[in-house]
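Recall the central idea of this unit: under ordinary conditions, the amino acid sequence of a chain determines the structure it adopts. In this exercise we apply that idea directly, starting from the sequence alone.
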Amino acid sequence: MSQQHPVRSTGSPPARPDASMSLLNNVMDHALDDGYAEASARREAEGGGLPRTLRAKLGLAAGLVLAAAVVTVGAAEARISAPVVAKERQELIDRIEAETSAADRLEQDVEKIRDEVGERQRKVLEQHGGDQAELVALLSGATPVRGPGVKLVVDDAKDTEQGGGGPRESSGFSDTGRVRDRDMQRIVNGLWESGAEAVAINGQRLTSLSAIRAAGDAILVDNKPLVPPYTVLAVGDGQRLSTAFQDSADGQYLHALQENFGIRTSISAEAEVRLPAAPSLIVRTAVPRGAGAAKATGQATADTGKGTS
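Accordingly, the structure predicted from this sequence is:
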C-alpha cells in the first residue's frame, strides 16, 4: 500500500512583512492629498496663478509705501518740534542758572552779615567780660586760639561702601568701616574730659553749645557738613593730653573701631596748633530776680544773646 504525502495548501499568498504598517505605507504612497492635487490642477487649467501673485505683490508694495509715509510724517513732526523742545530746555537751564546765582549771592550776604555780627559780639565780649574776659572768649570760641596740643585724624576704612547697613545703622556698635556722628561725639567728649581747652573738627570750632549730628552719611557740626578724613585739633598740653585721651574710655572706643572695623586713626602731640574762632556765638546769661527770690526758689531768668558764659 503506497503512502501519499500531504499536499500543501496554495489558496492564499504569504503576508507582507510590512502589513502591520498600512497607514504609513498609505501616507508614503499618497504624499499629496487628492484634494490638494485637484485644486492645483484646477488653478493650472484656469491659468489664474499669475494674477494672484501680482495682487500679492501690489498689496506688499502698498503696505511698504504706507509704512514709509508714516515714518516720513513722524520724522517731519519731530523735526518741526525739535526747535521748540530745545528752546524750552534752554529756558529751563537759564532759569536754573539764574536761581543758582541768586542763591549764591544770598549765601555770600549771609556770610558777610554773620561775620559782622560775630565781630561786634567779640568786641562786646572783650569790653564787658570783666576780669575773666579772656577765659570767657576762649570757652565761647569768640576768638581764634593757638598753642600746644594734639592732632587726631580719623578716617573711614579702606574700600568702604557708601550706604552702610547692619547693626551700626540702628543700634549701638558698628559692623561697617564708616565713621558715624556718635563716634565723633565720643571722640570730642573724650578730648574735653582729657583736658582740651579748645577743639575744632576740619576747621570748624566747637563750643560748649556745638552739636554733632548726622544727615544721611554726612556728619554735621553746627549744621555744616564735613567730609572724611576728619582732622581734630585740640589745644592743651600735647603729650599729656594725648596720653590721657588714649587711656580714657573714649580713646579705647576709638581703638576698638580701629582694631575691629578698620577705621583709620592717628594721633600726635603738636608743638603748636591753630584753631579759628567759632562762626557764631550764643551767650546765655542768668540774672536772678532778686536776692531773696534767688535764695528762696533758686530760679533765674535767661537772657539769650550771642556768645557763651
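Residues 160 and 177 are 6 Å apart (CA to CA).
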